[in-house]
Amino acid sequence: MMKKATHCSDYAVTRRRFLKGAGGAATLLGMPVSQLLAAGGSALPAKAEHVILFWNGGGMSHIDTWDPKPGRPTQGDFDPIKTSADGIQISEILPQLAKQMHHCALVRSIAGTNGDHGRATYELQTGYGQSANLVHPGLGSIVVHEKERLGDLPAYVTVSGQAPRSGYLGQKCAAYFVGQPGEPDPYLKFPADISEIRGNKRLEVLARMNRKTSSQVGSKAMQANETAVDDAVALMRSPALKAFELKHENPKTIARYGDTDFGRGALMAKRLVETGVRFVQVNRGGFDTHSNNFEAMRAHGEIMDPALASLIEDLASSGLLQKTLVLMLSEFGRTPRINENAGRDHHAKVFSCFLAGGGVQGGQVIGASDEDGVAPAERPVKPYDLHATVCHALGIDGNKEIMTPLERPMRLVREGGEPVKELFS
Fold it and tell me: In the predicted model, what is the mean pLDDT of residues 261-283?
């Protein structure tokens, strides 16, 4: 049975937040706390408990995946195919996923603002524009900051690539990194020449030294390091650590997902949410297809299609899809115009994303691009609306403010971000 632990709340309260006003009433910046709470709203009932985010770095072509344009000059090499959802077509490179689309939804009208990889990645993953003097936390850090931790495993895991930094939310909200999905972490076991008894004694000495230094120095960084060591030791000794390993998984299951890093990453993501992990990010690059776009996208489809389809099918059959939000994002789309190198270039003006589970009603499309996939035609969705949507699904109040270590109040979701509530109706 999974046990509950406290979530990361390093900066949830600071001494500036509670000042004493007339009559001893608690105030925040001179305003009674009771009024602030009433004005700030509250979290809605959660529809989801977990998130699996597939991050496709490089800018994935919307026209060659979720938003085909048959018969138009921008169509390219791929034909659309029918899906299990009436009236919804997707690219032919995703035939297995097409059979699961009754569980899934698409947003085809994301109106981006950045065509630069770095800035667009930052905005899509944090909801904010880049700033020279502030690091905003990624979506996973926001989720684990606001939701209680379940079980022994880290609440936030990133697979096959680094996740965004936790910024002002602190080290407790940072992602646990898994480089090779399915392989045991060599840093969570003692070296071959050190016995368990000897290793445990070393850990006890380290803990005493850390406590002594922390009490003398008292710095936040030292305390955070001590917490990190304690968490690593607890993880190393937890039976739940087996969720990271796939060596005992049925070979037929691995083959069904695809014996690739992406397929193993999707399978591991399923195992992790089954064990209680709140947020899993699975990373895949190679979508910056300025040349040979169609050859590259067909190869991507062969890897992504069985993994996504198997994940959705398995989560649905176990009932876990109802409380697991699955989301696939990229920093922008690709140009409808096909260049002289049979490629597509950066295109932020409109692109798409894929969602399933976590209260999302399957078999629907929100918004639309124009006939050539150049710009939004219906229901534009801002990138940070997606952050508001994830918070909405998890019952998190996106309007909540967090005080940073520099005493600066920051909203969880960028001002103006609104949930795409049609997804849930």
Answer: 96
